[in-house]
């Protein structure tokens, strides 16, 4: 097992990441790589469809996408990945349910050549 980081330590690394659900010293994570498809159908409590993966089409049809925020976000991530860029690791619980990273997971799902993703997995 790699280095164990607290949720608080992970949140401090990213300026746009603040989450009371995992951003404390009580939650511990390790950085690991997993098959992206292993995340798709895992139940997710904050997801509109109940799963980790929200497809691009689902984002496009989401009432909260009125200003194209979600689809623009996914498209920017897709373009960045397609051009060889990297995205920060997603953050998942022990059961692989997302704490953070739905837009990233959608972007990864649009690129069949990417088989594995890096995540902070709760231990």
Structure description:
By secondary structure, the chain is of the alpha+beta class. Helices cover 32% and strands 20% of the residues. It is built from five helices and five strands; from the N terminus they run βαβαααββαβ. It has a five-stranded mixed β-sheet with strand order 1-2-5-3-4. A hairpin with a 5-residue loop joins β3 and β4. The relative contact order is 0.23.
The Rg value, from CA coordinates, equals 14 Å
- How much of the residues is beta strand, in percent? 15-25%
Which spans of ≥5 residues are poorly predicted at pLDDT below 50?
Answer: none
Shape by Cα distribution: globular
Extended strand count: 5
SS summary, helix count: 5
Q: State the helicity in percent bands.
A: 25-40%
Task: Note the main sheet.
Answer: 5 strands, mixed
Spatial strand sequence of the major β-sheet = 1-2-5-3-4
Q: Structural class of the secondary elements?
A: alpha+beta
Mean pLDDT: 90
Distance between the termini: 10 Å
Helix and strand pattern: EHEHHHEEHE
Q: Which oligomerization state do the chains in this entry correspond to?
A: single chain
Question: Would you spell out the secondary-structure blueprint of this structure?
Answer:
Blueprint (H helix, E strand, L loop, with lengths): L3 E3 H7 L14 E8 L1 H4 L15 H6 L7 H14 L7 E3 L5 E3 L1 H8 L6 E7 L1
Parallel strand pairs: 3-5
Antiparallel strand pairs: 1-2, 2-5, 3-4
Kindly list the characteristics that best describe this protein.
single chain; 123 residues; 5 helices
């Amino acid at each position: 097992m790699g280095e164990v980081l607290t949720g608080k330590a992970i949140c401090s690394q990213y300026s746009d990441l603040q989450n009371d659900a995992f951003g404390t010293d009580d939650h511990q994570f390790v950085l690991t790589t997993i098959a992206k498809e292993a995340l798709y159908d895992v139940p997710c409590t904050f997801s509109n469809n109940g799963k980790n993966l929200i497809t691009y089409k689902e984002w496009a049809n989401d009432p909260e996408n009125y200003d194209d925020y979600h689809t623009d976000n996914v498209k920017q991530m897709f373009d960045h990945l397609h051009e060889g860029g990297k995205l920060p690791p997603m953050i998942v619980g022990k059961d692989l349910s997302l704490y953070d990273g739905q837009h990233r997971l959608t972007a990864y799902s649009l690129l069949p050549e990417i088989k594995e993703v890096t995540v902070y997995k709760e231990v």
